[in-house]
Write a structure and sequence with these properties.
The chain is an alpha/beta fold. The protein binds iron/sulfur cluster (SF4).
């Protein structure tokens, strides 16, 4: 028997560190780490000890004999990763890998005076950096977020029907109450407090502000009512306090067109056609659940410029898309290259997973019906050309093998990637939407660092941030040892006073715990894991109310 890694793998490699026989790959020191869609267990070497399953932050690892339903395929998916790999010449073992030199996280000399580091952004990138600093040095860490609640993209980006993935956030959240961590939420750097003021109270600042904006399509009609970004839609269904409940109106749309072929596009498609009764068991925003209960959307069309062999989504997300209860997955065969690519795909290729999908050359004059199953239609080799109005989106013209197709739709969602935004006081590269840096050190600045999407651009899942953070923290610690960090003029308390004076609503770890308790209590009353507070005033009020009553927990 062996274990297998499954759909929710976050690739943060926590499991790699605990495997006694080094049979989970790629490891962070192997060249293909960060390029594969997930990590894989080598079934020939696994000794079935279960250590990886215990360590996995997202509950993605199971014995293969416990895999059921769509997860069953992961036994073959794990094994396929090792097929055809040559034994390592050094060991001449049946596996391809060899033990490398032991790698230790960079630390500081034991007699080094504690440094104080601010981490701006409490999503996965910032929290991996904080974890690295708190576990491997005696640094004090100030965790800062412009929102009155922590979590970043784990709280506001992960789809509500992926609770396993949110487990990565729970694992990182334990550092909110670390004795050397101080939580300061509801303060925006660049608005309430300047980067210079922040730097003056810390030895170093790590910016983990992500990529909150989105890329545009650049087609006529893109700004019509009914056309919106996936970032707005994701924020809407995740109860982001800066996205109003009215920001998304599903109206009478029976069909939605989503432009994009990445995992975010698949998330949005799934949420739009999932049974609202199933979503009611998640932490989806109350207002989104109500709108989806009233929704008339019966079909979502995903437009991809390239073929199924080049789609940007991961195999695991596509596999899940084919198993949404009551939803039929359809491939539009308008272009002969599409069926050709699916038929020619090898067992480890993503396109092979579409063999179970319905194939159909879709007749766009047919209205999505109420009677049949809800559908997700994948239309490859088709770029959007225009959103047709005149007053609101009523159709999308998209390219096709035999000329453009006019696809009637009341909703157009662009899901072609996130984009970073400039932060006052920091350099910014408009072309890449990132802060220019060298190994995490912000170019032209001292004591300023970046991590996550604002550093490397909007690619890679949650776990990719662990290695990214390790590089940045390594640069920071090297600078500390070399005496290149400017000494802070102000104390941690002085920073808290400054931030509180400017915002009047600073939330600390006790307030954060109070928000968590309030949301879980609302959820318990509704039979749900939590009901999120969806506005800044509600979040702040819960933090203040609960802070007076309960302990951190
Ligand atoms: Fe490694 Fe044990 Fe997990 Fe097998 S079950 S992959 S041996 S940690």
């Amino acid at each position: 028997m062996t274990y297998a890694i499954t759909q929710t793998c976050c690739s943060d490699a926590t499991c790699v560190a605990v495997c006694p026989v080094n049979c989970i790959h790629p490891t962070p020191d192997e060249p293909d780490f960060g390029t594969t869609e997930m990590l894989y267990v080598d079934p020939k070497t696994c000794i079935d000890c279960g250590a990886c399953a215990d360590a996995c932050p997202v509950d993605a690892i199971f014995p293969v004999d416990r895999l059921t339903g769509p997860l069953k395929k992961y036994e073959a998916i794990n094994a396929a990763h090792y097929e055809g790999r040559e034994p390592a010449p050094v060991l001449a073992s049946p596996t391809f890998h060899a033990w490398g030199e032991p790698a230790f996280a960079r630390s500081l000399p034991s007699d080094f005076a504690p440094i104080r580091v601010a981490v701006v952004g409490t999503g996965p990138a910032g929290m991996y950096a904080a974890e690295d600093l708190l576990l491997h040095t005696n640094a004090e860490v100030t965790l800062i977020d412009r929102l009155p609640v922590a979590g970043g993209l784990v709280r506001y980006g992960v789809a509500p029907d992926h609770p396993g993935t949110k487990g990565a956030g729970d694992a990182l959240a334990r550092f909110h109450t670390h004795p050397r961590a101080t939580v300061r939420l509801g303060v925006e750097i660049g608005k309430d407090v300047t980067p210079e003021e922040l730097a003056a109270h810390h030895d170093a600042v790590v910016y983990a502000v992500g990529a909150p904006s989105d890329r545009r399509l650049g087609i006529p009609g893109e700004d019509l009512p009914g056309s919106l970004s996936a970032t707005s839609l994701v924020s809407w269904y995740n109860a982001h306090p800066e996205t109003a409940p009215e920001a998304v109106a599903l109206g009478t749309a029976r069909r939605a067109v989503i432009v994009g072929n990445g995992n975010v596009a698949l998330d949005v498609a799934r949420i739009l056609v999932s049974d609202p009764a199933a979503l009611a068991a998640t932490d989806i925003a109350d207002h989104a659940l109500a709108a989806l209960r009233d929704s008339r959307v019966r079909e979502v069309v995903l437009l991809g410029r390239r073929g199924p062999e080049d789609a940007a989504y991961t195999a695991s997300e596509l596999l899940a898309l084919g198993h949404v209860p009551g939803v039929e997955l359809v491939v539009d065969t308008h272009d002969p290259r599409i069926a050709g690519a699916i038929d020619a795909a090898g067992p480890g290729d993503k396109a092979a997973l579409l063999r179970d999908a319905t194939r159909e050359t879709v007749d766009w004059t047919r209205a999505p019906g109420d009677g049949g199953p809800r559908r997700i239609v994948l239309r490859f080799h088709s770029a959007p050309e225009e959103a047709l109005g005149p007053d609101a989106v009523r159709a999308v013209r998209a390219g096709g093998a035999d000329g453009p197709a006019e696809i009637p739709a009341g909703l157009l969602v662009r899901a072609i990637g996130y984009r970073g935004v400039p932060l006052a006081g920091l350099p910014f590269d408009e072309a890449t939407g990132t802060v220019p840096h060298t190994a995490g050190r912000v170019d032209g600045m001292t004591g300023a660092y970046v991590v996550g999407w604002i550093k490397r651009g909007p690619s890679g899942g949650i776990g990719a941030n662990r290695a990214c953070a390790a590089e940045t923290v390594g640069s920071l610690l090297a600078d500390a040892v070399d005496g290149r960090l400017p000494k802070p003029a102000g104390s941690a308390k002085a920073f808290a006073r400054l931030a509180r004076d400017r915002t009047g609503r600073l939330i600390d770890a006790r307030g954060l715990a109070a928000i968590d308790r309030a949301e879980r209590a609302r959820g318990a009353a509704a039979g749900r894991p939590r009901v999120k507070l969806a506005t800044v005033p509600e979040l702040v009020a819960a933090a203040r109310r609960g802070r007076l009553r309960g302990p951190v927990g």
